[in-house]
Amino acid sequence: MLVIFLGDVGHTTTFDIQLAMGSVSQLQAAIATRLRIPVDKQVLLSSQGETLQPSARVASFSTGTETNPIFLFNKSNIESVTPPVATVHSTNDGKLLTQLDASLRMRPSQETVVRQAQLASEFHRHAGEFYRSCCQLVQEQALLQRAWKAVIANLEQIGRAFSDRLQSLHDLYNEILASKVDYIEQLQQFDFSLSELQKISLPTVLLKSQEFSSLLSPTTKESFELIASKTEASSEKAISLLDWISAHDSKCHLEQLGVHCRKSLDQLSASHLEEVMSKMAAVQESLNNNDMKEVSGLDERLHLLQERLTRAAALQQEQSDVSQGFQQNKMRAQSLRDPSVFPDLCAGLEGQLTMLANNHSQLKELRSRFASAKRELCANLHTRLRWVMFVQKNVADSDSNILLRCESLKKLKKRFDVIEQVNSASRMFIVATVEVVRRRHYNKHFITVRSHTQNLSLECSCADYSVV
What we know:
- By secondary structure, this protein is mainly alpha-helical.
- Helices cover 75% and strands 4% of the residues.
- It has helices at residues 24-35, 75-79, 96-104, 110-178, 180-199, 204-208, 210-214, 218-233, 241-246, 251-267, 270-287, 290-293, 298-336, 342-467, and strands at residues 2-6, 11-15, 42-45, 70-74.
């Protein structure tokens, strides 16, 4: 069977073991059907604090056993201001003490002995029920402690991930601040670079090449071909290098790129970073609130419960021993059938009945204390679980803020990469053009030399044949 412990009410429930072979989402659907907890209000944790993701398989988490159950939390209960009612199984002892008083008023007889033996058996049975209930209450409180530890482990995982993302934001921000002077220089050069690119005309031969055409969209290609044909037929201005760059993105975007980068760069400063980090530090501090994370005296409380449970076990055993004595006396009375022994026998049993009643009251009181301790622990943990939800909401909001800032800074870096490429485009084009011209000159010279060498070789060959 698949064991699940409800960490907000302290109750254990079981499901078909086949669900362990399925996905967590299938288990959540089964929980919603049986326990009436909507899927979006379920939080499933392993004892290590790992969240059971809906797409994962239940068996992959190595949890769900009696010694290592899955911890389930109902967000609806946690969100409520009023703590949920802790699950406590009641034990009804009926009118046992009333029946005891009635038996003590009966005349000494065999019937009285039989009736008192029956009452002793009832006391013994109820002692067993009380003791099992006490054991269950202590076990559930131990599981409540483990469930809380799982919540804290999960919270610490969230805190570490949040710290890593915050550190990434801090490093990225500092990286851009360190390059701010270089970025300002790039922006100052950007407008000049655009004007220079506008002045550089692309050769018509390049416009007609297949390699160039493959880099353009169909619409831009038709436009460039039309401009190129007009350029050949007239003295109109040729297509500039800026036009070619703008073929992949609008010229308006390139012009606005510098404006956007300037605005973004003006907003970045060390004081702004310090302001952002101070806000995030408050969230980090709330994650490290040890007064809320540590339930003071919880271990001592569980130790005290174990001592009381040992006392309950001793009382239950004493009830069993006394009950067996009553059964032996009943058998003795039935075998003797001597009315003269009943007065002394009933007088002796009266003290044992009083002991049974006292032990019964003590067991009942112990069980009541165990139940009260569980209710107090559930109420205590409810307040702390509400704090955890509040902190996690703050972390989620801050995470969104960090994500947006990181994406914004990454986009700014990419924009400056584009600006750097635009600034170097004219130089790269001129360098490439010079290299092309050099290679063409070299090619022409190489062809001339090769042709001259071939002619000399041919003349030498002809001369050799003449001599022969």
